[in-house]
């Protein structure tokens, strides 16, 4: 099944003009092969510890202070000090129906969405002041720019959606482009382009577009692939793309033109279980998927929980290693983040935040 194609309208085009969307056909000649290596034996240096004692909805790290912040399932916010590990409750206000948390690049602030899926509320939490700042009313999705000074957001404008930019220092907004589309999210990894991505489902052919906020031109990054979901490295240097094809699902490494960077797929998992650095990526990889599993739907709707090992891959060499295998703690890895000599992630099985120290 296909969802309606997105129709984008800019101020430079005549009313009713349609922007043709194109995509790149690529080959896999002379690319590094995803080379899965034997597992690395867990050592005493690879220490797995639960950072939080209580369940967490989501978390982020203030890169300036090293402090970790997390939202409890009902919206209370806690800080865990980097220096002493002390946990402090910052807010007692409860927030129902939490949906998404998107920290700024430096972790000093975070966008939190909650409420009805049809009419969500978006607000920014400031870790320095412990205060909230609402986004403009009617926001449907939002994303930080790479330096954290602006926010791109979608809003309803009559029967259309409009992509707008909010400059935090001035509070001024600017509309970029309007279009007809539904079920969109935003990713902003490069200074000039905002990605529009359709919410993933195996039941629909999803696409991903890049909007140039200066020229207001649009290009297609990925066109109509079932189950499409992606995760991007800083600067969109590369991404991991999951698709659910007619015969099998696969996870591949691509550039921002949908050209494959590896000659074979990497171990099957979802981009939501991965974190990407300049050339390396870490992922929680399930040991198996039950027969009849529909990906990514069952996982994203929390109908499926997995038991994972953690791998590291390199998009330049194609090498893939297991850095941590199963121990006495079962792990369903989500919200994976790469820190200096450690990984952070949420374990969906017990809802706690864990740290895994990596060997030198």
Task: Give a structural overview.
With 360 residues, the protein is an all-beta fold. It is built from 1 helix and 29 strands. The protein has one helix at 297-300; strands spanning 7-9, 35-36, 48-50, 58-61, 68-71, 77-80, 87-89, 98-103, 109-115, 120-126, 131-134, 139-144, 150-157, 160-167, 173-180, 184-187, 193-198, 205-212, 218-226, 229-232, 239-244, 249-254, 274-276, 280-286, 308-314, 319-324, 333-339, 342-347, 352-357. It has a 5-stranded antiparallel beta sheet with strand order 1-15-14-13-12, with no helix packed on it. It has a 5-stranded mixed beta sheet with strand order 2-26-25-24-23, with no helix packed on it. A 4-stranded antiparallel beta sheet has the order 3-29-28-27, with no helix packed on it. Strand 27 and strand 28 (342-347) form a beta hairpin. The protein is globular, with a radius of gyration of 20 Å. The N and C termini lie far apart (48 Å).
């Amino acid at each position: 099944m296909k969802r309606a194609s997105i129709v984008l309208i800019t101020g430079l085009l005549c009313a009713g003009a349609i922007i043709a969307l194109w995509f790149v056909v690529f080959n896999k000649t002379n690319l590094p092969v995803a080379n899965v290596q034997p597992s690395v034996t867990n050592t005493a240096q690879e220490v797995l510890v639960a950072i939080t004692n209580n369940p967490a909805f989501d978390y982020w790290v203030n890169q300036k202070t090293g402090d970790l912040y997390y939202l409890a399932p009902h919206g209370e916010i806690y800080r865990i000090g980097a220096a002493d590990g002390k946990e402090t409750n910052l807010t007692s206000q409860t927030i129902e129906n939490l949906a998404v948390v998107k920290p700024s690049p430096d972790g000093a602030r975070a966008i939190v969405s909650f409420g009805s899926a049809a009419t969500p509320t978006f607000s920014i939490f400031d870790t320095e002041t412990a205060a909230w700042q609402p986004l403009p009313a009617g926001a449907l999705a939002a994303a930080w720019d790479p330096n954290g000074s602006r926010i791109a957001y979608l809003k309803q404008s009559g029967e259309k959606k409009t992509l707008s930019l909010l400059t935090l220092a001035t509070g001024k907004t600017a509309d970029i482009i309007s279009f007809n589309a539904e079920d969109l999210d935003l990713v902003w990894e490069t200074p000039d382009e905002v990605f529009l991505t359709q919410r993933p489902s195996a039941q629909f052919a999803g696409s991903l577009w890049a909007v140039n906020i200066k020229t207001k031109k649009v290009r297609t990054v990925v066109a109509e692939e079932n189950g499409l979901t992606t995760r991007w490295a800083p600067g969109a240097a590369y991404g991991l793309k999951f698709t659910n094809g007619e015969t099998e699902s696969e996870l591949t490494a691509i550039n921002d033109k949908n050209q494959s960077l590896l000659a074979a797929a990497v171990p099957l998992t979802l981009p939501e279980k991965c974190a990407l650095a300049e050339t390396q990526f870490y992922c929680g990889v399930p040991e198996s998927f039950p027969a009849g599993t529909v990906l990514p739907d069952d996982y994203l709707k929390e109908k499926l929980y997995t038991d994972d090992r953690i791998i590291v891959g390199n998009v330049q060499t194609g090498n893939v290693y297991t850095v941590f295998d199963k121990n006495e703690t079962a792990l369903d890895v989500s919200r994976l983040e790469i820190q200096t000599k450690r990984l952070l992630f949420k374990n969906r099985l017990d809802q706690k935040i864990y740290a895994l120290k990596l060997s030198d």
